[in-house]
Design a protein that fits this description.
This protein has 112 residues and is mostly beta strands. It has no helices and ten strands.
Length: 112
């Protein structure tokens, strides 16, 4: 199992980024997927998930600003982030739900 995140970077408050997580080594379409983030000095925070049927779930902290999606043909899960705030600064990880498989993470920094 391999999960590889990309798309992070530095953005100003109010800006947008789209994160991608490319999956391999398992039948992607058969698993629910999630995004988790970890800010400096804090524990991991679950922020979003998408099940195999495409139903989306969000933490209150990102609801209305972030959108999770998946492309089973590309074995990829996405996180579209809009109206970013400084408190969104963190390393973002994708995780296969029901497992301990995580990616290496991608850094998102929101700063003026």
């Amino acid at each position: 199992v391999q999960l590889v995140e990309s798309g992070g970077g530095m953005v100003q408050p109010g800006g947008s980024l789209r994160l991608s997580c490319a999956a391999s080594g398992f039948t992607f379409s058969a698993y629910d997927m999630s995004w988790i983030r970890q800010a400096p000095g804090k524990g991991p925070e679950w922020i979003s998930a998408i099940n195999i049927g495409g139903t989306q779930y969000y933490a209150d902290s990102v609801k209305g600003r972030f959108t999770i999606s998946r492309d089973n043909a590309k074995n990829t899960v996405y996180l579209q982030m809009s109206n970013l705030k400084p408190e969104d600064t963190a390393v973002y990880y994708c995780k296969r739900l029901g497992s301990n498989y995580w990616g290496q993470g991608t850094q998102v920094t929101v700063s003026s």
